[in-house]
Amino acid sequence: MTQEQRTRLQTWLPLIVLAVLILIVGIYDPRFFSARNFLSVTADTMTLFLMASGVTLVIMMGGIDLSVQAVASMASCILAAYLQQLGFLAIPLAVLGGALAGFIGGLASTKFRIPSFIATLAVSGVVISAGNWFSQTRSVNIPGDLSATYLDWAIGEALGVPNEIWVGAAFLVIMSAVLGLTPFGRLVRGIGAQERAVIASGINVDRTKIAAFTLSGTMAGVAGVVMAARLGSGSPTLANEFLLPAIACIVVGGTAITGGVGSIWRTFVGALIVQVVRIGMTFMGVSVFAQQIVFGFILVAAVAVTMDRAKVLVIK
Question: Which residues of the chain have pLDDT under 50?
Answer without folding.
Answer: 312-316
